[in-house]
Amino acid sequence: MANIISDETIEYVGILAKLELSDEEKEQAKKDMGSMLDYIDKLGELDTENVEPMSHVFPVHNVFREDVVTNADMRDDILKNAPEEKNGMFMVPRTFE
Amino acid sequence: MSAANGMAGSTAGREADGILNMTALELGAAIRNKEVTAQQAAEAVLSQIRSSEERYHCYVTVDEEGALMQARQIQEKIDRGELTHPLAGVPVAIKDNMCTEGLLTTCSSKILYNFVPTFSSEAVLNLQRAGAVILGKTNMDEFAMGSTTETSAFGVTRNPWNPEYVPGGSSGGSAAAVASRECFYALGSDTGGSIRQPASFCGVVGLKPTYGRVSRYGLVAYGSSLDQIGPLCKDVADCAAVMEVIASYDPKDSTSVKRQDNDFTTALVEDVKGMRIGIPGDYFGEGLDPEVKKAVLEAAGVLKERGAVVEEFDLSLVEYAIPAYYTIAAAEASSNLERFDGIKYGYRTQEYEGLHNMYKKSRSEGFGAEVKRRIMLGSFVLSSGYYDAYYLKALRVKALIRKAFDEAFAKYDVILGPVAPTTAPRLGESLSDPIKMYLGDIYTIAVNLAGLPGLSMPCGRDAKGLPIGLQLIGDCFEEKKLIRMAYTYEKARGPFSREEAR
Q1: Residue A54 and residue B345: Cβ atoms within 8 Å?
Q2: Would A38 be classed as within a structural domain?
Q3: H or E element, residue B107
Q4: A60-90 as b/e, with b when 16 or more CB fall inside 10 Å?
């Protein structure tokens, strides 16, 4: 395997991904990511020196609209999906001590 | 004994069977001609669901009560002359990654196990305006990440042709529901082959439209630059009719494209004289099952006999599509799936210390292994230091792949090839080796990278009796060429269904 994923890398990616992996999952992730990157490295065979990255297949750029509310007030319905709510607001854990 | 078996000998049972064997358009016509009511159609299909769902598990949610209520209301509108659409009153199944107001929408994930949307996706609203009866939500690979419907948090779906085999994925529930007559047609979504490959494995017709043709508003995003909603149907005519309903310009989707050519049923013409078909030699090399190869080339021969000009060519870059795709799709997925944080909806972990720990634990407990694998990979390829080498590199390769297709479509109207290298694998065979599973997408994935339309339809069965899929790929917004060619081939091929195969 050409790509060796270190414990530090998995820790760092776990922070970016907001995932808490078990030790077993971390070992599996190291193996999986290593073999995926080996596979993705195949792209290096292609010379893309003068090729512009293509994010969108059509020449569409930013699409703007007026910032006008068009939907009805659905606060109560939306809050029904919240794991916790209080006084018409989403409840989150304490963020300041 | 199930209810349906008990009914089989009775008049009612035969009538129900007659209804279930109709295509969506045939049923729509029967409803308009007052031979069948929308309620009878809904009852027939709900009874079929009750009798065969235990075997196939196509659905995450069946909305029996809601379907009967919609059927009654739609029949009243038809009777009053307010609804005249060819598909009015016809029951449909929706993949569980499209939001449906008031109806559970889970993406087959634990993290959305209790999510009830307050709005419907635009494609679903378009169907409802035409008088569709929504039966329920079909099973899928979790967040559409997978090719077998085995990564669903709510159990696997089985292939109606042989329950020991997978239905394909990620729209496996939709494809299996059409094949098992548990709906008359279904919506799926296709990010790397997720409509075409299950359609192929289940012997139904699936169409992935050009990127931008169908609004993605209300489709839970996986790879936003690749995702597209499309139909899975019993035949090509149904596919064209459904496309006519769901294709629309929608200001709520900034990538939606305004088109004047959404009259897809005008392309149901039995004539391919002079149409140029390109067969990419690199789609027929190593890894392609000989039985699949033979059936697909025979289909090309049929079209040639009907006057199409068939030529072999080299598409090139085929082996680069998968690594480019997994880089881009994983990157977009890692960003799109950040919204699942246990605050606004869905699963929240029971015990946690502070906000960040709550995020991490909710996500880690809520997502399955394949989803976490792709989020991790995506976060890595977007991280500083690797962004240029992986993510930007993949976007440059995407540009090259698009250029290869542009060159092909300068010479050909349609590219013809297999949908997948093999027919459906056995349950449990694929998940152990992710890269092997990803390789199964080799013929479908480039179409998403280039934003092209692709159609999948049955062209034979292998020695095991499993359906083989034929793929037709068109240039952007050339769905009509695909429909015309598919319709011509279908007429030459004759009927294809489990009922016909018996």
Answers
A1: no
A2: yes
A3: none
A4: eeeeeeeeeeeeeeeeeebbebbbebeeeee
* Nearest residue of A to residue B452, measured between CA atoms: A57
Q: Check whether B487 has a pLDDT greater than 80.
A: yes
Contact B323 A29 (CB under 8 A): no
Cβ-nearest to A13 among B251, B380, B399:
B380
A35 and B435 within 8 Å at the Cβ level: the answer is: yes
Taking residues A69-95, report their average pLDDT: 93
Q: Which of A1, A3, A36, A50 should one mutate to test binding to chain B, selecting the residue with the greatest count of B CBs within 10 A?
A: A36
Q: CA–CA separation, B347 vs B342, rounded Å?
A: 6
The per-residue pLDDT for range B150-161, each reduced to its tens digit, is 999 999 999 999
Give the largest CA-CA distance in chain B: 70
Q: What is the pLDDT of residue A58?
A: 85
Work out how many domains chain A is built from and give that number.
Answer: 1
Can you state the percent helix, strand and coil of chain A, rounding each to 5? 40, 5, 55
CA distances to A23, A90, B283, B456, B495 from B489, rounded to whole Å, are 54, 55, 20, 12, 11
Q: Which of B170, B206, B168 is nearest to B191 (CA)?
A: B170
Distance of CA B73 to the CA centre of its chain: 28
> Domains of chain B, with CATH numbers?
3-282+293-315+410-501 (3.90.1300.10)
Give the separation between CA B1 and CA A94, rounded to whole angstroms: 56
Model confidence pLDDT, tens digit, residues B312-368: 999 999 999 999 999 999 999 999 999 999 999 999 999 999 999 999 999 999 999
> Is A17 within the bounds of a domain?
yes
Quick check: B475 and B409 in contact, CB under 8 A? yes
Q: Which amino acid would we find at residue B260?
A: Q
What residue has token string 């280039």? B450
Shortest CB distance from A81 goes to which of B345, B373, B393?
Answer: B345
Give domain status of residue A93, yes or no: no
Contact B376 A14 (CB under 8 A): yes
The model's confidence at residue B15, banded by pLDDT at 50, 70 and 90, is confident
Q: A34 lies in which domain range? A: 7-45
Among A50, A60, A44, A5, residue whose Cα is nearest residue A27: A5
Give A45's contacts in chain B (Cβ within 8 Å): 320
pLDDT tens by residue, B120-144: 999 999 999 999 999 999 999 999 9
**Whether pLDDT at B14 is above 80:** no
Between CA B190 and CA B227 the distance in angstroms is 6
Q: In chain B, which residue's Cα lies nearest the Cα of A39? A: B323
Catalytic residue ranges of B: 95, 170, 194
Q: Do A54 and B399 touch (CB under 8 A)?
A: yes
- Candidates A10, A58, A80; nearest CB to B212: A58
Q: What is the CATH number of the domain that holds A13?
A: 1.10.20
Per-residue pLDDT tens digits for B77-106? 999 999 999 999 999 999 999 999 999 999
A26 in any annotated domain: yes
